[in-house]
Amino acid sequence: MDLAAVILVEIVYAIASLVLISAGLAIVFGMMKVINLAHGEFMMLGGYVTITAVKAGVNIFLAMILIAPLVVGAIGLIVERLVIRHLYGRLVDTMLATWGLSLFFVGGVTMIFGNTTTGISTPIPGFPIGGYQVNGYNFFIILVSIILVIAMYAVLKGTRIGLIARGTMQRADMAAALGYSPDRVYMATFFVGSALSGLAGAVLAPLVGLVPSSGGAYIAKAFITVIAGGPALVAGLLSSAGFFGLVNQAFAFALSPVVGEVALLISAVILLRVLPQGITTRFFRGRL
Amino acid sequence: MRGNQWREYLWIVAVGVALIVALPSAIDTYTLTVLLVYAMLGLSLGLIWGFGGILCFGQAAFFGLGAYAYAISAINFGESTIPMLIAIIVPAAFAAILGAMMFYGRLADVYLGVITLVVTLIFYRFMNSTAGPEYMIGSARLGGFNGIPGFQTLNVPGYPDFYVWGDSLYYVVAVALLLVFLLVTWLLGSSFGRIAVGIRESETRMSLMGYDVRARKTVLFTVGAAIAGLSGAFFANWAEIVTPGLFSLPQSAEIIIWCIVGGLGTRIGPMVGAAGLSYLKFLLGQQSLVDNTLITGLILVLFVLFLPRGLVPAIVSVAGRVLTRRNRPSRRLRVRRAANG
Amino acid sequence: MAETVLETENLTMRFGGVVAADNVSFRLAARELRCLIGPNGAGKSTFFKCITGLLTPSDGRIFMRHEETTGWHPHEIASLGVGVKTQVPSVMDGLTVRENIWLAARRRHPVVEANRKTADMIERLELNAIAAADVGRLAHGERQQVELGIVAVGDPWLVLLDEPAAGMSAGDVERMVAIIRELNRSAAVIIVEHDMQFIRSIASTVTVFHQGSVLMEDHVDKVMSDETVRRVYLGKKG
To answer: Is B297's CB within 8 Å of A110's CB?
Structure first.
């Protein structure tokens, strides 16, 4: 019984962290049809911002929830103005340029912080369920993911900004038809997407030893979660994160964590072969 | 038409031999060898991406697979001739299966990118986790993060004790690259190559003409993987160790950057890009002021923004413009030249 | 009675809840020239795509020269000797006119023969002046002509043309009609077209599509004077 509870928590945690690391990429891809391969590095930057702020004496939650997203969002804004803006509508070129950016950030951070592992301890202590020790911080991540999904849904469904966003996702020229400059919409989208990447990186930072190349570990998972999800933003994110999280944890428990990782990647290849346009083209059509 | 083709081959051989002889006086052969290995790897992606329109984010997978296949079979066989063949066949066979799966499923663009990238990552993760003694192929331990050292390096076929190393290895790699380049040239001049370019331009039209696009893309993808595998085997011989790093994302990224910087749709571009950027990296590696990765990234961004066609096509078109200004209006010349050719 | 080269049996295509082609049974004789007309969304293009293999029908069967081709891939159907011209010209923009036509010729002939056939076709279509130009730089009418050359050089016995006259000048259309007539000497031709002027100038049997099924099938003059057709197709004009 205790074991079942622990496994359940682990599965929910795996799904929640997939949602968290993919959200920023999903928004940017859904709205702008831009695959941001520097997404992992935005997360890495979020982690470094958090650690730097905490070491400077800032409250850790303030650093994670507010400072990291704002700083990374601002970096995203600069990137959008300098690079991405010139490449709209050229999917492959934006992928290549953002891949270049990702290397740029890895190199830059290495120069500033050095190629060594840094980290901070988790602010929430663990506690036992029966005979098993559970990481209390996992619940915080689950909570953050749930709030994030609810917020995304509410904004898209309930606000004027959400309406513009949904219109833009359907048809790129929709924002212009509604009287908003597409340029502004894209700018805002990239800011929000980058900020969410920063948030994800910040929230996950206490769990991992951070190195400049940490982003590489996230990008592939985020990438496949978003692509496999398909066009519907929230439903796609939830369904593919649910699927991959489940596969990952099932194999990790049955065999080993490495097998879990590999199983996740292999299942992604198979899923894309079966549903090349993503889960939400077949199921949950027309949802958000 | 046939005469032209022979003349082109002769030119390639003449220039190639001249370069092979001349280069060692500029750069030491140890460095040169790896530059040529990378040039071959660049050419393999340049072939399938530049002429077949297949953007593979995981060319490193075939490179690494070739290197590992060589190392593992060299340990088992105790000589290098059969392992060299295995290093070509294994990546090619794997690419044939993977390619068939993707192309027959009509996956393109981003989806192709995701799958090839993910496959590379699978190899990376898997190889990293094989540190335990239970991971053996024959008598070769996979070695996990530490890789496989101490395998038999290239020897004269039939004489396992006559090692090919140092300057000789350079000449072997250089001649192999020349042969691969001739092969690619022949391939692109043949109907197969021209059809591949047609598919790059319009898959719909080519299939409405009756060409089996899926099969042809799979074959081209396989050829590219075979070349990448060969370069991987040479890399293993040069480095005398193979590690999971061969499958890493930065490695994949680098191959793509070589092609972009050198120029897609040309044979020379990706090779120049590969050798040039690797040499630049080598030179930069000797200073510690600016990080290497930062510069690589910056180069990629700047090229995508300002010179998306790459160096070689840009130089060719500038040279062409300068030349034609001396002669006659460019358009007419172009039409006339093409009509003759 | 001429041999039947194309036949569909109760061909049906559904997209979700929408029935785009409904139980279409269609027959085409060798060397026949047939026009498909109908208002937008009548199912002509869906029908066309089912025949060429670009879509797989939800129901029904397709036969070409007595061979069932239902569910075949476009390249398999093309290999039988079927030439297709799509609505938006599909040509290889980065290649020259000569290369475009050569690739089509090469599919059916060895290199030397393909070179000869390509030269002949360029001659026949009077494309010599632009043979070495990239197709991407050509005007719309020229691109349409190049695509017809691609279709014709394969010596097809069945030719499917989707709106060949769309966006062309009067002179271009005239040349197009001449080429189609020449093709028709050895091949059966199906043309999907909106332009009644064009159909009249070709003067052939017309199949009228309406709401996914065949409304009527007769000579162009009879069709034009039919009350129902005038109502559904020509609308207020009638």
So the answer is: no
